[in-house]
Amino acid sequence: MLQWITGHRCTTTSVDGTSRAEEELDNDHSITNTATDRHRVAGEERSMNDVKTVTVTPAQDRFADWMRDVLVYTVVLNLFVEFSDAIVIDSFTISIFTAVVLKILLDILTMVEHHVSHFFSKIHRVLGFLSMWAVLFLSKFVILEVIDIIFGDHVELGKLLDVILLVLALMISRALVVKAYDSLGVQDPDDAPAAA
Fold this sequence. Notes:
Elements: E1 2-5, E2 10-12, H1 21-27, E3 38-41, E4 44-47, E5 53-55, H2 58-83, E6 88-89, H3 92-123, H4 125-151, E7 155-156, H5 160-184
Antiparallel strand pairs: 1-2, 1-5, 3-4, 6-7
Helix pairs in contact: 2-3, 2-5, 3-4, 4-5
C-alpha cells in the first residue's frame, strides 16, 4: 500500500506489514540538517520521531483522479466559452455537468480505442494504427451527439474542428496537470538512478 511521509519521501509497506520509514529516517540523516534531528514543517518544529504517515486507498485515488479531471475540464471548457464564439455553454453549473459527461465519454472512448487498436494490431500493425485513428475521429461525432442529447440548446460545442481542438486541449491540459502532480511527489531513494 502506498504511504506518504509528510515532509520526506514516499515509502512502501512491506508484505509482512512493517514499514521501512523509521529505519530509513534513523539511518539516513542526509535528509535532515546533520547538526540537528529537528526540522520545520509548515511553520512548526517537529522531531524526526513525530513524522505522520498518510495512507491513500484506491477509492481515494479514484476520487482525486475524478476531481482533478473534472476541475481541469471545467476550466478548459470555460476558457473556450470565453475565447471562442463557436462554443457556448449557458451557465457555469452546466459547464460542470458538461465536464463530468466529457470525463465519462473520454474515459470510455479511450478504453474502446485501446481495445480496438490492440485487437487489430494482433492481425497487422498497420490495421492497429488505422483502427486507432478511425476510433479517434469517429469519437468526436459521438461526443457531439451525446452532448446534444443530454444538454440540448444549453451547450453548443461548435463544429467538428472545434470539438477536435477542445478534446485535444482537454487531454493536453489533463496530461500537464498529472505531470505537475507527479513531479511534486518525493522520489524513493531506492528507485533513484545510481550515480556513476
